[in-house]
Design goal:
Mean pLDDT: 94
Strand content: 15-25%
CATH class of the largest domain: Alpha Beta
CATH architecture of the largest domain: 3-Layer(aba) Sandwich
Number of strands: 14
Low-confidence stretches: none
Radius of gyration: 24 Å
Structural class: alpha/beta
CATH superfamily of the largest domain: Vaccinia Virus protein VP39
Strand order of the largest sheet: 2-3-1-4-7-6-5
CATH topology of the largest domain: Rossmann fold
Largest sheet: 7 strands, mixed
Length: 389
């Protein structure tokens, strides 16, 4: 089967998580750059990546890469790419998005217009037609220009992969499903460990953790744009990916996942989202303020996305929330805490400096992922030795 280069964009700073996911699927990484990972795979890889990857927004089939400093160079290099390999005679194609960083070509609309014309000229020559009806499958094209190097990819996904299909109801400041999954994977949390989100909002952190625990493929309840590309992506690839997703699903997993929020309506929405995801039975949601945060278990994890206090009038309230969170966390002496926040005085209000923090952009907002790792649970031999003493 023919091999392709596939590009998976991810949040800046989380490339290692994306790389590990792809490697776990059994595919070979060819390049890791800021905000994206490229790997090699066949048609099955396109289906597998869309079905099973938790931390990317979409899967791009790389059509080519070249250097261009003028629009003439852009036109000729785009025209030279083998578009007929992907786009059939009746295909609907357009430049869905173009972005440029530190490059001589910087106007997205002009880039889109020139490249569309170049593709049309190429396909006119190949198919010997002067007009394209574009009545068939859709082929949106995404273009990234960094330091005059143009990378062109066909979007195999369509609607962003963060839309798993469960989050119809959201809180005011939601974190995307893909970012939540990536942050969970950045921690040492395992499905047999306790996890609590004291500011759970729409329930994204506990729901994504439950899906990981149940080995639930994030794409198993949705469709993908490239399912229509049957001229080179066999329907059997999608059928095989879905069959595997159902085979590995374990809805009987034992979990210790909890989500708290002070707002009853928000908790009701989180429950509805979890039920829609198929993991409602794996999570305990409860209306509870952070001042009542407690747990009898040991070696648990707090993983959360607290309010940021972006409005001036909210800052005092937010400072008190973080101070209370720090006080309650201090009482959980064997626990770990991982929180993403755009609040500038997070560590000061928590009352403890994080062991690590990592800058991450949550949409356009600069945030930090503060990491407070706790002690590791004793191993069986260590427990025995402690008892013996």
């Amino acid at each position: 089967m023919e091999l392709y280069e596939l590009i998976t964009p991810c949040h800046f700073g989380l490339e290692s998580v994306m790389k590990r996911e792809i490697t776990d699927l059994g595919y070979e990484i060819s390049q890791v750059e800021d905000g994206k990972v490229t790997f090699t795979g066949d048609a099955q890889a396109i289906a597998d990546a869309n079905m099973f990857l938790r931390t990317t927004e979409r899967v791009l089939l790389k059509a080519g890469a070249f250097r261009a400093c003028t629009f003439d160079e852009l036109f000729e290099a785009t025209k030279a790419l083998p578009w007929e390999r992907y786009i059939p005679k009746d295909g609907k194609f357009w430049i869905a998005k173009a972005n440029s960083v530190r490059s001589k070509l910087f106007s997205p609309s002009d880039i889109q217009s020139v490249m569309k014309k170049a593709i049309v000229e190429r396909l006119k020559q190949v198919y010997h037609v002067s007009w394209f009806e574009e009545s068939g499958a859709s082929f949106p094209i995404r273009v990234s220009i960094v330091k005059d190097v143009v990378t062109v990819g066909l979007d195999t996904t369509g609607t962003s992969l963060h839309k798993r299909g469960y989050r119809v109801q959201t809180a005011k400041a939601p974190i995307t499903e893909t970012l939540a999954a990536a942050l969970i994977k950045l921690t040492p949390w395992k499905p047999d460990r306790i996890m609590v989100d004291p500011f759970c909002g729409s329930g994204t952190f506990p729901i994504e953790a439950a899906m990981i625990a149940a080995n639930m493929a994030p794409g198993m309840k949705r469709t993908f744009l490239s399912e229509e590309w049957t001229h080179f992506l066999p329907a059997s690839c999608w059928a095989d990916a879905r069959e595997e997703a159902h085979d590995i699903l374990d809805l009987g997993a034992v979990t210790h996942l909890q989500g708290y929020d002070i707002d009853k309506e928000v908790i009701d929405a989180a429950r509805a989202n979890a039920e829609r995801a198929g993991v409602g039975h794996l999570i305990h949601f409860q209306q509870r303020p952070v001042s009542q945060l407690s747990h009898s278990g040991k070696y648990g994890f707090l993983i959360t996305n607290p309010p940021y206090g972006e409005r001036l009038e909210d800052r005092e309230t937010v400072e008190n929330l973080y101070r209370t969170l720090g006080e309650r966390f201090a009482l959980l002496d064997t626990w770990s805490m991982y929180l993403i926040s755009g609040y500038a005085d997070t560590e000061k209000a928590i009352g403890k400096k994080a062991a690590k923090n990592r800058k991450i952009y949550n949409g356009m907002l600069k945030t930090y992922f503060y990491q407070y790792p706790g002690p590791k649970p004793l191993r069986k031999k260590e427990k025995y030795d402690t008892i013996a003493k």
